[in-house]
Amino acid sequence: MDYEFSRNSFDDSYRIVFSMGHEAIGRWLLDELGTELAQVTSCLHTLQQLESEQQWRGHTFTLTANRDEVVVVANAMLQPASYDAQTTLNEQALTFYDEESYAACGYQDFLVMLDAYQDFIARYGRR
Questions:
Q1: Structural element, H or E, at residue 51
Q2: What is the pTM (predicted TM-score) of this model?
């Protein structure tokens, strides 16, 4: 899993890019954790202390973690769908975008990434 964090100093925006298949993790970072160092630190500490599978549902994404794997899924993908013609058409049209709605990686890899994000926010976060 490759990733890159950057901050645009002109408009104070953040950009997170993840390798193909892991894009949802980047979206989860910005949408659910944001750029507040205290929130990132709290999440990292909670995950480091993980003893059994836990699930956290945010506004946009749900994160499920155990000591082997971390899975990030867009909440929209967890909603029960009604299978009418319009839903089928929408699902076919949006299949391409599922890559940005679901990602999984190893537990240790996720902790390393989250630690790197914490360092990035500590160094380049809003002051």
A1: none
A2: 0.84
